[in-house]
Predict the 3D structure of the following.
Amino acid sequence: MEELIEKVDKLKQELNNDHRIIKIQELNEQIKNNKILYNKTIKYKETLDDELKKEITDNKLYRDYKHAETELNILILEINQKLKEISKKGQCQ
């Protein structure tokens, strides 16, 4: 059990230092600090206005964020795949 805890802690540390996670955190902070873009995203969630959506998606910072989000989702899929492999090894056959 202690070995598992150590491995999970190591994984957390590696993830905290992963460039994809650092990048999305930075971009998230930049969007929050960009009051115009941030307010547009809030307003869009309330109104679902297509014109507002276009303004948001045309923004380079937003596109960079969505790209980083896709990279992060791929990382999550890779982690899930590895976890599935590990859990299969631990099953009785």
